[in-house]
Amino acid sequence: MDETVVVTPNWLAAHLEDEDEDEHENADEHGHEDPQVRIVDVRDAWEYDGIGHVPGAVSIPFDSYRDETDVDRGTLPGVDAFATLLGDAGISPDDTIVAYDDTHGVFAARFVLTALEYGHDDVRLLDGDFSAWNRDHETTSAEPETEPTTYAPDPLAREESPLVDLETVEDALERDAVFVDTRERHEFEEARLPGAVRFDWREVVDDETRRLKPESELEALLSEYGITPDREIVLYCNTARRISHTYVVLRALGYEHVAFYEGSLTEWLATDGDIETGESR
Fold this sequence. Notes:
The structure is a single chain. By secondary structure, the protein is α/β, with parallel strands linked by helices. The chain has 2 domains: about 5-135, Oxidized Rhodanese, domain 1 (3-Layer(aba) Sandwich); about 165-270, Oxidized Rhodanese, domain 1. Helices cover about 30% and strands about 10% of the residues. The strands form 2 sheets. It has a 5-stranded parallel β-sheet with strand order 1-5-4-2-3, with helices on both faces. A 5-stranded parallel β-sheet has the order 6-10-9-7-8. It is globular.
């Protein structure tokens, strides 16, 4: 599993220890080592405050980086709003960000996708979630001291972005692309894109450990559905939240041809796109 995409709790714990040892030796004028690991907790604020969080984590709740008004594309918050969020949290463009939630990583994966789209080079998903972290590592209720930054995003150009629009999806339907629907069975059977395969995003998660299944097991599982690295893959769900997790997992496995349909089925139905219905495997 590519550690530049997904990191284990032990990886994060080791880097926190290293930074505690080095922060005074390599500090800038604000007392920070730069660049460094910045941890983002995307749970609700009451969970961050009341239940506790990973030491050093800042709170950026899911609703704060999601905007249903399509100010940018789909439910992206807009480049200025996202820059303000990260700047207020003391994050700089050259920091390594590790995001987590307590829902197997699906909300944190949306943060990862958003940060990548706005040009943050090094943003990673914590393998597992807060509950997985809490089994072997300490938590805290203390908020870290942060110094606000002026965060300057560098959004990806359209041709560099994994996000694809309706026209691109229509074109892909004419090719040998694999359309992957990450929703639940009843949603899939009610309406889906033509020829799509259903791959519930939670299938990659081990229910006991709350972490991702072993890499070899994931590759075999994906292959059963025809989701292989040599194919063009188009991901969709309803509002592009659940596909964020699948997208990050595929990137961590080295898949290179993965398109992210931001409009997903919500846009497809609104534009009277062709659908299939009925039972599936």
